[in-house]
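#struct-help
A.M.: can someone run this one for me? Single chain, 256 residues.
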Amino acid sequence: MSASDSRAEPPEQIGPRRRWGPLPTVVTGAVSALAWWLAAQAADALPSPSPSPGTTATELWDMAADGRLGSILWRMAAFMGACFAIAVVLGVAGGLAIGMSRSVDRGLSPYLAALQGMPTSMWIPVAAIVLGTRTAVRNVPPLHLRAGRTLGESGTSLVRRVVLPAALPGIMSGVELSCSIAFRCLVAGEIFSGALSGTGIGEVIGRSRKTGDLTEMMATIVVVLTFTVAVDRLVFSRVQSRLRTRRGRVDVGLPH
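D.P.: on it. Structure tokens below:
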């Protein structure tokens, strides 16, 4: 066999591809629940013992029976879905516009960075997405832009066919970060402003804090944790995995 033939062969697969699925997440949750139970057992002798997994599960059942759990989940999904969708559209569009123009970038980026420190919660997720998109666009290799222009792309076509695909992984990282920020803003807004009526996550946490009901507060924390883990595993994790695979950043011959 010649040297050229050996170079043409595909690389050897080091190991079989394994897909663990949700098993690592389930195992981590089980270990955390066991550690929680042990901590609750050790705290039984304290004047204010922490709620155990059993009492928390009972509280979750009561919340589901009287409608509190359904109201919390519905409000989280509805407000996060609608408001976050608006933030993504505005943030990505603004980040693309800023990232494609050096003069606009130099003029607006410092103010966008300062905007994240302002107490106006509605601006923080948008500013995070704008900055993430702007950074991803600025990090697109100039060679890609020159190649796109050589092939006849310009203006909107260049952004759509060259810049956006190349910057998409960075944009998704900014969107994922913004989602967590938006969720904290939602809870803080419900607790401190009282603008949203009904049974929401912030209202339940605020009431539990006032009454000292640790079991209800722990049950609410479990709901929030489950919701955020589900969003991460079912949405962001899958999107990031597909992006890495399409861009050749995952070795299909290795377990991952």
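A.M.: thanks! The two ends are 34 Å apart (CA to CA).
D.P.: also worth noting: The mean pLDDT is 75.
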